[in-house]
Amino acid sequence: MEQIRTSAAQVIIAVIPIVGIVMGSVVIFFYLLWSHRQKTLLIKSGQYNKPSFDLYSFSLLSGLLLSTVGIALTALLSIIEGVSYGLLGGIIPLSMGIGLLAYYVIKRIERHND
């Protein structure tokens, strides 16, 4: 009897993530479908306004966030594990943040010179 309970528990534990992924995928699919239909109808009626996106502010904000998270993770992982492949968990966001900040600085200099 105990063997049956553990097998049933293992099946339930294995099914729960699958159901969660499927349900999340269904929600995302319908969100994208309805958003597409809404935008299509707005375009047909002439009421659609293209949303503005400020790439410079986004690169600054995400660069700062990624850099600070990368610095914290790099410091923590280097203290805990030393130099190993696990240190990449901090170096990757740090380098992405530095790259985004460099992009922001380069574009700002270009805008200032124009």
Could you characterize the architecture of this molecule?
The chain has 114 residues and is mostly helical. It has 2 domains: 1-50; 55-113. The protein is 85% helix and 0% strand. It contains 3 helices and no strands. α2 (55-81) packs antiparallel against α3. It starts with a helix and ends with a helix.
The tally of structural domains comes to 2
- The general outline is flat
Gyration radius from CA atoms, angstroms: 24 Å
Number of strands: 0
Helix content: over 70%
| Tally of contiguous helical segments | 3
**Distance from first to last alpha carbon:** 79 Å
Structural class: mainly alpha
* Secondary-structure element string: HHH
- Residue share in β-strands: under 5%
Poorly predicted parts:
none
Look at the structure and give the mean pLDDT.
91
| Main sheet record | none
Layout of secondary structure:
Blueprint: H1 2-45, H2 55-81, H3 88-113
Helix pairs in contact: 2-3
Question: How would you concisely characterize the structure shown here?
Answer:
The protein is mostly helical and 114 residues long. It has helices at 2-45, 55-81, 88-113.
Structural descriptors:
3 helices; single chain; 114 residues; mainly alpha; flat
